[in-house]
Amino acid sequence: MTLFRILLALMFVAISGYTALVVAHHGLDLFSVFFGDMAKLMWPGQFNLDFTCLLLLSGLWVSYRHCFRPLGLLLGLGAFIGGVSFLSIYLLVETFRTGGDVSALLLGQRRTP
Predict the structure, then answer these.
(1) What angle do CA 58, 59, 64 make, to 5 degrees?
(2) Are 56 and 99 within 8 A, CB to CB?
(3) 3-state secondary structure the chain
(4) N-terminal to C-terminal alpha carbon distance within the chain
(5) Exposed e or buried b for every residue in 48-77, given b needs 16+ CB within 10 A?
(6) What is the pLDDT of residues 12-41, one digit of tens each?
(7) Which residues are within 8 A (CB) of 34 and not within 5 positions of it... i.e. 6 or more apart?
(8) What is the pLDDT of residues 73-105, one digit of tens each?
(9) What number of other Cβ atoms are within 10 A of residue 24's Cβ?
(10) Residues with Cβ < 8 Å from 12, sequence gap 6 or more?
């Protein structure tokens, strides 16, 4: 579990640093670029669509862990919108809240014996 937690921390630092550099050089115009690439029906757009589907699955999983209750839906939206920036911190916190129990981490504490 320690290596997983280190990986999550490294992911957060890497994506935060990369995002800061991109915003500094190109501004916050993410959506026109993201959806513009998808509209062109080329490889960057295919990647963006695939990534959007992965974000959707991530958000659904987080919501599921919380039994689709209001807080779970809000956290799921955070996972969908925030990507690894959100999910790395969320999982890091949850690894400590679940005491490193992988079943509880994956399914939520309400679904584990």
Answers:
(1) 100
(2) no
(3) CHHHHHHHHHHHHHHHHHHHHHHHHHCCCHHHHHHHHHHCCCHHHHHHHHHHHHHHHHHHHHHHHCCCCHHHHHHHHHHHHHHHHHHHHHHHHHHHHCCCCHHHHHHCHHHCC
(4) 20
(5) beeeeeebeebbeebbebbeeeeebeebbe
(6) 999 999 999 999 999 998 889 999 999 999
(7) 48
(8) 999 999 999 999 999 999 999 999 999 999 999
(9) 8
(10) 84, 85, 88, 89, 92
- For residue 102, the one-letter residue type is V
